């Protein structure tokens, strides 16, 4: 790990250089990281050791941003990079929409508290965990045909500073493991998936909980699953699907850059009732889940944001630019994939607040489709139409689970379905994931409880 | 520094890195790269940001008894990267299927991959391109919102390994995208278009107006009557459904994870269907003299007149089967070790001047966000953008419409292939008509 703490003079001089060259505002993110990725595919291991050092600098001029990055982080490299960012802003600002920005300043040093710092755990121990998951997956059943276990950790040290006086020094630690397991019987092939990830060190993997066997068992159980039917059904979503719903179908629409660019269904809806009483959705970067950050990538202290409260839209996710333009102020929602990309408005840990039902009560008298686990999904931002493909599903008749179903898809319109959520259980749980936006990937968590919804479109094969 | 000088410097760095590898114990590979890009982004027709980046780095892959260790670093920290990769390779498990990194070979000459115009473009010109494509999309007063972006980049790469592989390459690329929303009252429609090229040769007007037309056409969506009907796949949908299904990595085939495992030599599609992976395609986005392991690029028929001919191989999967690599090792950037991926895919054109004129009642799919299940070959998905076809004409946009079909059935039910082809990124394909697909619409 490269030492960043002694860089303060270089950082501040680069920011001064940007101001002297004509930037109205400039900020810098200096990052150093150490990480390890391990994969085991059917016994074949690959170990990837990752080390990064670099800085990204933005310059703002009358509504235009210039962004440049560098891996040369000495005094000269940072100053050159700052000057490049200013030249970029100057080259285009006359063709930009004019606005000004307000920037709250912070000065702080924060460190994620972990028990087993990944950089102090041997590769052998990490590999041991991966191979144990592989063994568990294979032992789930003799029909398990192929396994793929992945492990990634990172210790990321950032300095975020700006021309308004912010100087934040933050170290975050993240760990994640994923199991993808394939099963085969005759010509039938199915797969199962399980992941666990948090802003924790290696202690995350010492609790005995396994992901390999869980994924293996799911793959096996799907071998005798039937294709899903098509049509309109009532539905129950498991926590992983309700979490993805909170993130994909609602959360992205609440990002203020989409409000400004005219691509969100939530534009103009603040303080309006857009969902049922049962529905409260929160984005909370302060939880030590996979999407944790103490400060965002613009150096703003993060906080819990209630986006939707009992059906009423409370706020959007904002960064410095969008918060200034919308008059809401920033609520600390700017994130960048790495030093070489500019921060944009992003979610962190996004979830439905739990309700007061027990799972049995939710299913009482219910007929429809019970969806479990998320494969993938997508949303049409301008209309709010979304489709999620589940990992597995059950047909339910009068509260009894009947046929086991594979590849069942669920689609609906966000603004309609929020009114149709009529019951949520009290068991909140979270899943780690990776979200892509504007070509940048960030670690996120989605969460929720079991949720009952009336009248959605189900697609099968 | 010219790009030829840059290549020589990068190759020298690779050679220096490999000199640190004890070849009596390890096999090693070094990949070094330097790139430069400029981009601009427009929001609602106004410039929002411009970016420029220089990136350089080295990726080191070391094998010890088949156990792979990988590390990357900036070009100033080559020795550190080599040490990290060696210690990672020592920690992993031996793999008896690993034989060797590829040997040195002569590389083919490729064309159309470098454009001096792109290499010398500044941010102001790139920003103007984003503005021009936005202007071109405003073909009607209902088009209210336009977001667009443009980028150009150039790069030089070098690769070397401990078996004498030694290669360098440079390239340029430019890309353009535009996203348009049309409004009238409560109704709205979304349209988009992309273009990418190794040369600075965009027809900005046609890219912009295509997005505008799509937005207008997508307004006022209606369901269609459900049932089995002909489905016409736009080139973009051919990519996400057909091309995605039939380009199978040898890794998935060997691990029995693909529905096409064991089907080499079988008639999996109608005899009019041919798809080729062509790493040598003149001006192709993925064209280069060699792949990410330094294996010469080649042209590989994957499905030829309906018969499945090949999977995509890198050197590891080829050695495991005792065959030759197809040159399909690929890497996103120097931070990642190579993995198997298609190069440029080309689907053969057909005979039809108009693939929709004989459709009485069917649908046209412009885009879907779904993809076939790679292990079962089943496809079920929502039409992200599509239109009804009535009496040979495109009619209203589709509302909440799903289609479902097994890809092996789909390939046998291809009944019309257009004469005209279109290139989207690295896929060149005609428009394709499939008979008897289940379509369900609601809402």
List keywords for this structure.
heterodimer, A: 461 residues, alpha+beta, PmbA/TldD fold, 2 domains, seven-stranded mixed beta sheet, six-stranded mixed beta sheet, 42% strand, B: 443 residues, six-stranded antiparallel beta sheet, five-stranded mixed beta barrel, 9 helices, 21% helix, 40% strand, globular
In short:
The complex is a heterodimer of chains A (461) and B (443). By secondary structure, chain A is of the alpha+beta class. Helices cover 21% and strands 42% of the residues of chain A.
Task: Estimate what percentage of residues of chain A fall within beta strands.
Answer: 35-45%
Greatest chain-chain contact: A-B, 72 and 79 residues
Structure annotation, total helices of chain B: 9
Q: Which oligomerization state do the chains in this entry correspond to?
A: heterodimer
**Helical fraction of chain B:** 10-25%
Rounded to an integer in angstroms, the radius of gyration calculated over CA atoms of chain A is 23 Å
Radius of gyration of chain B: 24 Å
Number of helices of chain A: 9
- Taken as a percent bin, the fraction of beta residues of chain B is 35-45%
The helix-and-strand class of chain B reads alpha+beta
Distance between the termini of chain B: 60 Å
Unreliable residue runs of chain A: none
Mean pLDDT reading of chain B: 95
**Morphology call of chain B:** globular
Instruction: Count the E strands of chain B.
Output: 19
| Total of domains of chain B | 2
Overall pLDDT metric of chain A: 95
Shape of chain A: globular
Largest sheet of chain B: 6 strands, antiparallel
**Distance between termini of chain A?**
51 Å
Order of helices and strands of chain B: HEEEHHHEEEHEHHEEEHEEEEEEEHEE
Describe what this molecule looks like in 3D.
The complex is a heterodimer of chains A (461) and B (443). In chain A, strand 6 and strand 7 form a beta hairpin. The model of chain A has no long low-confidence stretch (mean pLDDT 95). Chain A starts with 7 loop residues before the first helix and ends with a strand. Chain A has two domains: 220 residues, PmbA/TldD fold (2-Layer Sandwich); 234 residues, no CATH class. Chain A has 461 residues and is α+β, with helices and mostly antiparallel strands. In chain A, the strands form four sheets. In chain A, strands 1, 2, 3, 4, 5, 6 and 7 form a seven-stranded mixed beta sheet that branches. Chain A has a six-stranded mixed beta sheet with strand order 12-11-10-15-22-21. Chain B is α+β, with helices and mostly antiparallel strands and 443 residues long. Chain B has two domains: 213 residues, 2-Layer Sandwich (PmbA/TldD fold), CATH 3.30.2290; 223 residues, no CATH class. Chain B has a six-stranded antiparallel beta sheet. A five-stranded mixed beta barrel of chain B has the order 7-14-15-17-19. Chain B is globular and about 70 Å long. The termini of chain B are far apart. The interface between A and B is large, with 72 and 79 residues. Strand 2 of chain A pairs parallel with strand 3 of chain B, so a sheet runs across the interface.
């Amino acid at each position: 790990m490269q030492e960043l703490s002694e860089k303060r003079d270089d950082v501040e001089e680069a920011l001064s250089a940007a101001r002297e060259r004509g930037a109205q505002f400039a900020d810098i993110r200096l990052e150093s990281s150490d990480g390890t990725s391990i994969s085991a595919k059917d016994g074949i291991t690959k170990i990837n050791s990752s080390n990064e050092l670099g800085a990204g600098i933005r310059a703002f001029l009358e509504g235009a941003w210039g962004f440049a990055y560098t891996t040369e982080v000495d005094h000269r490299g940072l100053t050159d990079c700052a000057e490049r960012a200013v030249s970029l802003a100057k080259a285009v600002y006359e063709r930009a929409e004019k606005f000004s920005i307000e920037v709250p300043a912070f000065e702080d040093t924060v460190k994620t508290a972990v028990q087993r710092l990944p950089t102090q755990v041997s590769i052998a121990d990490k590999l041991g965990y991966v191979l144990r998951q592989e063994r568990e997956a294979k032992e789930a059943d003799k029909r398990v045909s192929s396994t793929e276990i992945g492990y990634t950790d990172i210790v990321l040290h950032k300095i975020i500073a700006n021309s308004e006086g912010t100087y934040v020094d933050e170290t975050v630690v993240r760990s994640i493991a994923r199991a993808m397991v394939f099963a085969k019987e005759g010509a039938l092939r199915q797969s199962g998936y399980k992941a666990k990830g948090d802003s924790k060190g290696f202690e995350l993997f010492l609790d005995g909980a396994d992901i390999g066997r869980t994924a293996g068992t799911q793959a096996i159980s799907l071998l005798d699953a039937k294709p899903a039917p098509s049509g309109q059904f009532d539905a129950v979503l498991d926590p992983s699907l309700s979490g993805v719903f909170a993130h994909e179908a609602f959360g992205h629409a609440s990002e203020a850059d989409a409000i400004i660019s005219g691509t969100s269904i939530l534009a103009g809806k603040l303080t309006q009732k857009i969902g049922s009483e049962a529905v409260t959705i929160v984005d909370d970067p302060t939880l030590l889940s996979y999407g944790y950050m103490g400060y965002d990538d613009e150096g703003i202290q993060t906080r819990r944001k209630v986006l939707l409260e009992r059906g009423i839209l409370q706020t959007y996710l904002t960064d410095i630019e969008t918060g200034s333009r919308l008059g809401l102020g920033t609520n600390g929602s700017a994130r960048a994939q790495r030093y070489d990309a500019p921060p944009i408005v992003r979610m962190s840990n996004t979830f439905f607040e739990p309700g007061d039902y027990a799972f049995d009560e939710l299913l009482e008298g219910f007929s429809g489709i019970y969806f479990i686990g998320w494969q993938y999904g997508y949303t049409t931002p301008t209309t709010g139409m979304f489709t999620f493909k589940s990992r597995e599903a059950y047909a339910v008749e009068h509260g009894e689970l009947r046929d086991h179903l594979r590849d069942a898809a669920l689609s609906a319109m966000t603004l309609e379905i929020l009114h149709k959520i009529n019951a949520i259980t009290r068991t909140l749980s979270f899943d780690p994931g990776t979200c892509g936006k504007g070509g940048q990937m960030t670690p996120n968590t989605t969460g929720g409880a079991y949720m009952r919804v009336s009248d959605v479109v189900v697609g099968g094969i | 520094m010219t790009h030829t000088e840059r290549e020589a410097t990068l190759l020298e760095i690779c050679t220096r890195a490999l000199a640190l590898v004890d070849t009596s114990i390890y096999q090693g590979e070094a990949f070094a790269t330097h790139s430069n890009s400029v981009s601009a982004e427009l929001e609602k027709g106004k410039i929002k940001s411009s970016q420029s980046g220089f990136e350089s780095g080295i990726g080191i892959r070391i094998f010890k008894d088949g156990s792979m260790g990988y590390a990357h670093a900036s070009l100033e920290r080559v020795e550190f990267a080599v040490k990290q990769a060696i210690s990672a390779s020592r920690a992993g498990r031996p793999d008896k299927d690993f034989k060797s990194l590829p040997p040195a070979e002569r590389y083919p000459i490729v064309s159309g991959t470098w454009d001096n115009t792109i290499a010398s473009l500044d941010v102001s010109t790139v920003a103007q391109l984003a503005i021009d494509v936005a202007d071109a999309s405003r073909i009607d007063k209902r088009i209210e919102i336009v977001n667009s972006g443009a980028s150009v980049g150039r790069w030089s790469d070098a690769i070397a390994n401990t078996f004498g592989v030694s290669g360098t390459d440079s390239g340029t690329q430019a890309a353009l995208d535009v996203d348009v929303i049309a409004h009238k009252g409560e109704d709205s429609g979304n349209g988009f278009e992309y273009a990418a090229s190794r040369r600075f040769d965009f027809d900005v007007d046609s890219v912009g107006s295509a997005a505008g037309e799509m937005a207008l056409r997508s307004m006022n969506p209606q369901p269609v009557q459900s049932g089995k009907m002909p489905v016409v796949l736009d080139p973009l949908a051919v990519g996400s459904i057909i091309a995605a299904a039939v380009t199978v990595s040898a890794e998935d085939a060997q691990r029995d994870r693909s529905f096409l495992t064991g089907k080499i030599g079988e008639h999996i599609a109608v005899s009019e269907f041919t798809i080729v992976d062509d790493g040598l395609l003149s001006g192709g986005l993925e064209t280069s003299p060699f792949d990410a392991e330094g294996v010469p690029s080649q042209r590989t028929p994957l499905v030829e007149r309906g018969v499945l001919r090949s999977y995509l191989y890198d050197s590891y999967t080829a050695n495991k089967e005792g065959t030759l690599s197809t040159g399909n090792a690929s890497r996103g950037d120097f931070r990642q070790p190579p993995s198997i991926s298609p190069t440029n895919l080309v689907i053969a054109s057909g005979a039809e001047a108009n693939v929709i004129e004989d459709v009485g009642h069917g649908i046209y799919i412009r885009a879907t966000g779904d993809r076939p299940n790679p292990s079962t070959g089943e496809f079920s998905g929502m039409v992200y953008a599509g239109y009804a076809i009535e009496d040979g004409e495109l009619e209203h946009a589709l509302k909440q419409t799903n289609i479902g079909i097994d890809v092996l059935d789909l390939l046998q039910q291809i009944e019309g292939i257009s004469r005209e082809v279109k290139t989207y990124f690295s896929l060149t394909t005609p428009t394709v008509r499939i008979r008897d697909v289940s379509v369900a619409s609601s809402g």
